């Protein structure tokens, strides 16, 4: 049975310059491990096409999908962090890896969409230097290396004034109106903001959690209507043919694996 891991990184996880406290360092090392094991990086489009029976098993055998969440400028631009120095962006890390190895690389970036929320999050959760912009989304999308996807309107983040009930959870997004605000509105913004043939197709649940209404009613009923093909959790499991498209699992860096050995077990499915 074919099983494919989806790996997830957070570029704002910068608490040092070691593998276990900096996802930029982790990603660079993990790309080397993936290459060393002869595992190919495929896109979410390829994974979903296989899942829908439109690609043969051979297309996804011995492969991995890369994603990242939240969409700060650290994803795309090399930035000098005030405490820890130069951080090579995920985008440039992918680009360098492709240049050095010739390997195909791709990452899907689930961005927080609301401009106003990103201003507040930058101030309260990042460095407060305006490093949560969206002017690079088009460049990322056009590069073919980093696709832009939906991580909700504002993450229902606890630091926001309009935060819905319990802090730091997506479980209270549990009726049609709040789902429309968080997901449909974000779809519309992404599709208007990114030009060309772009269509936002994927949604990652903030915090990896969700209400039964969102997961079992809203997305099955309205998901396709608003252009979504799949939604992603952080359930630390592999995707297989039986995975539900509205709850596809992902592994999270520095949570579900903390070193090369643990990553290898995920990749090789030991
Ligand atoms: Zn997030």
CATH class group: Alpha Beta
- Percent range of helical residues: 25-40%
Strand content: 5-15%
Whole-number total of structural domains: 1
Largest sheet: 6 strands, parallel
Tally of helical runs: 8
Averaged pLDDT, please? 96
Tally the beta strands.
10
Low-confidence stretches: none
CATH H-tier superfamily: Glycoside hydrolase/deacetylase
Give the CA-based shape. Answer: globular
Rg from alpha-carbon coordinates? 18 Å
Task: Report how far apart the termini are.
Answer: 14 Å
List the ions, cofactors and other small molecules found in this model. zinc ion
User: Which structural category fits the helices and strands?
Assistant: alpha/beta
Oligomeric state, counting identical vs distinct chains: single chain
CATH level-two architecture: Alpha-Beta Barrel
- Could you give the order of the helices and strands? EHEHEEEHEHHEHEHEEH
What are the salient characteristics of this protein?
two-stranded antiparallel ribbon; alpha/beta; 10 strands; 270 residues; binds zinc ion; TIM Barrel; 8 helices; six-stranded parallel beta sheet
Give structural notes:
- There is one protein chain.
- The chain has a single domain, classed as TIM Barrel.
- It is built from eight helices and ten strands.
- 33% of the residues lie in helices and 14% in strands.
- The protein is globular, with a radius of gyration of 18 Å.
- The strands form three sheets. Strands 1, 2, 3, 6, 7 and 10 form a six-stranded parallel beta sheet that branches. A two-stranded antiparallel ribbon has the order 4-5. It has a two-stranded parallel ribbon with strand order 8-9.
- The model has no long low-confidence stretch (mean pLDDT 96).
- The site of zinc ion (ZN) has 5 residues, from β3.
